[in-house]
Amino acid sequence: MNVEMLDELRDLLFDTTTRYKVAYGGRGGSKSTGIADYVLSRMLADGSQVVVCRELKDSIFDSIHALLKERLDFYGVADRFEVLNDRIVCKHNRAMLSYKHLHNNTTEIKGLQGKQICWIFEAEKLTKESWDILDPTVRLNDSEVIIEFNPDGSDDFVYTRFVINTPDNCRVLYLTYLDNPWCTDVNRKQAEDCKRDFPDDYRHIWLGEPSNVGARIYPGFDEEIHVREFRMDALQPIANFFMGQDPATVYYPFCVWMARIARGDEGFDYLVYNEYPTVGMMRGKWFHEVRQELPCSLTLKQRANMYQVLDRTIDRSFDWIRMRARGIDTRFAKASGAASTTTATVGMIEAMADPANGGLTFETPPESSIDCQRDKLRELMEFNRDLGVIRGVNEPHFFVMPHCHNVIDAFKHHRVDRKTKSEDQKRKDPIDAVRICMATMDQHPHVDPVAAIINTGSRNVVAHDPERELRETFLNRR
Fold first, then answer.
1. So what's the pLDDT on residue 386?
2. For residue 440, which of 326, 330, 319 has the smallest C-alpha distance?
3. The CATH number of the domain where 410 resides is what?
4. 214 part of a folded domain
5. Predicted local confidence at residue 245, as pLDDT
6. Which of 27, 85, 356, 407 is 20 to 30 A (C-alpha) from 435?
7. Is 115 in contact with 52 (CB distance < 8 Å)?
8. Which CATH number goes with the domain that contains 21?
9. Peptide bond into 445 cis (omega under 30)
10. Same domain? 311 vs 254
11. What is the DSSP code (8-state) at residue 422?
12. Range of the domain at 128
């Protein structure tokens, strides 16, 4: 099978010294067609076992399966292959091409160790989590990983990992329709019309430039830095505690619990220490996967009981934790579940405050205060990155506990929606809950917990110097 493809692509794909082969760029660059020809020729020539991967399962590989069948017909070798619905098998040597999605598919990914060629199709959606499982699994001595994509955001994992910070044993090739002598007249006309009428879209779609639209809203959030385990008992003399709820009409509201931690003259740290619902409560699914699918069947009293448990519990109960305040967004606190008879914000808040429903009171911070939290959160995540993290000296002021999986996922992936040019709704709920909680905090000056205990004559007072506790315990808290 003597394949015809761009010389630059041939040099990349047939390079036997390189493990990672990256082809990226704009539409019409003949990347997919050339790679399809390459894997089919390898199956015929040496019996290579091939897997085609993509991050998501939806409409899995319909387009790439159709392309492969088309290329077999183009070269007149279809009779040498058995084309099934979910795989293609070479009849004379049993070389097989199969398909796998990567997201939440650890077991099947780990079964790919016998594959010579792994082709990641539409790799702009590839996540670091999937890559960290896939890469060491494809481990035969002569194995290779072909990564093909049209860039999406400039901070996407695949773009930063392979284009900006190209690893060893990797070759990168940039292609557009301008490099493709077989580009159809229809495609060329489409590209030129787009260039004339929508130059920004032209650069992104046809030239393969990353788009700022669709970029992460919190690019400074780094899981290795901002996700950190805190000792809750060490926070007793220095922290105030708050809750924020992003309400829902029928489905589950999203709630967060946060500690505002005094740092002496340096201001405060902010810690998300609990979330609701958790991944476990949602049957192992992310909240964004069920946010508009799973109705909330809990009564307001049942929710109140759950909230009171989450006020204090990490891995054990901390009875000394008291909520300074709970906040909710007036714009969206409509009827919710058991409160379906209340159609206004006030009605819902009154219903939750009823002792029969648990007696929880919620404040409504000003809308402008909630909206400005995006910039505040960005600032809290920053520190002098040139120096690196020096605990207690040079570090950010915003953290999330490791078990708050939905909040972590939201800060890692929350983006601007390409179509609406506003925040993507998919992961917005956990972010909104954090903003509401932060805005609620802004309405309450910090109270020294030790002084408050002394003033109330509580038996929880411990024999220590609060100033020393503030300095020593805080610096050694994590």
1. 81
2. 326
3. 3.30.420.280
4. no
5. 94
6. 356
7. no
8. 3.40.50.300
9. no
10. yes
11. S
12. 7-205
- pTM: predicted TM-score of the whole model, two decimal places: 0.57
Do 445 and 383 lie in one domain? The reply is yes
What value does the mean pLDDT take over residues 10-22?
95
d(CA 47, CA 41): 9
339 pLDDT exceeds 70? no
Dihedral sign computed on CA atoms, order 212, 213, 217, 218: negative
Greater model confidence, 204 or 315: 204
| Residue with tokens 């773009």, as numbered in its chain | 159
Residue type, 406: N
Residues 191 and 282 in one domain: no
Share of the chain above pLDDT 70, in %: 87
Note whether 83 and 196 are same-domain residues.
Answer: yes
To 5 degrees, how large is the angle CA 63–CA 64–CA 69?
A: 100
Copy the structure tokens of residue 190: 């489409």
Are 10 and 35 contacting, i.e. CB atoms less than 8 angstroms apart? Answer: no
Domain-embedded: residue 68: yes
Let me know whether 186 and 311 are in one domain.
no
Q: Which class for 16: exposed (0-12), middle (13-18), buried (19 or more C-beta within 10 A)?
A: exposed
Contacts of 355 (CB under 8 A, 6+ apart): none
Give the end of a domain, one of 205, 239, 257. Answer: 205
User: What gap in Å lies between CA 150 and CA 153, rounded to an integer?
Assistant: 10
Three-state DSSP at 348 gives helix
Same domain membership, residue 315 and residue 177: no
Residue 472, SS3 per DSSP: helix
Q: Of 375, 402, 471, 404, which is closest to residue 225 (Cα–Cα)?
A: 402
**339 SS3 class:** helix
d(Cα 31, Cα 179) in Å, to the nearest integer?
Answer: 11
Q: Tell me, yes or no, whether 123 lies in a domain.
A: yes
Kindly provide the b/e burial profile for residues 213-244, where b requires at least 16 CB atoms within 10 angstroms of the residue's own CB. bbebbbebbeeebbbbebebebbbbbbbbbbb
359, 351 contact by CB (below 8 A): no
The per-residue pLDDT for 418 is: 63
